[in-house]
Write a structure and sequence with these properties.
DUF1432 domain-containing protein, 2 domains, transmembrane helix, elongated, alpha+beta
Length: 252
Amino acid sequence: MRFRKVPPGLIVRSLILATKAGIQNVTTQHLETHYLAHGNLVNVIKALIVADKANLGLSFKQATAIDLAGRDVLRAVQVSVTPYIIVVPAITAVSIDGIQLIAEARVTVRTNIQRLVGGAGEETIQARVGQGIISKIGTAKSYIDVLEKPEEISKTVLANGLDAGTAFEILSIDIADINIGQNIGAMLQIDQARADLDIANAKAEKRRAMAVALEQEMLARVQEAHAKVIQAEAEIPVALSDAVRKGRLFRG
């Protein structure tokens, strides 16, 4: 063992601990191999003991695989025996009547040993439950329905099998608290009214600008006509003088 840089004391203590607890099929070679793979021998043996007492059917191979996957195998077994609560942060959703609701949920889970390696973690449970709550509230006709029967959210979300592909088995989903937020429907109506007012003002301004432009055009035409009159009046004396000179004025 020393030649392979394996501490004999750790191997012997781990083997004695496993043997005294009645854990079978664990050899020094198994322990050495796991140690050399940078595994946590103490955690693995303790996890096997807890699993054995709880009849979880966890093998040494499974325990070492979980440990080498970077999971805390002892905590995983403990959570499998004693359910664990995952707190879902405040979720904001809007019911059909436009009222915003802020919900908090607690998800009671236990570890699924068989899916621990490769299974998704707590973040996935939180995300899926949060999405389920948003979807359920979003289909409620009135926020009052949600406030009166929050357990309906729990039932619907729980029935969706949100623990598929995760390292957990969901035992229950409880809505811890629901608070009323903003009236999104009313805010949207106000925003729409403001938008309509802005559009109306823009159209009125456009009409005013067109009226001013038309007025200026008419003034320009009046001035042009006035200029033509003045020009015509100025040409009268010249025409009279020319007519007198040519003897056309009194020709009968």
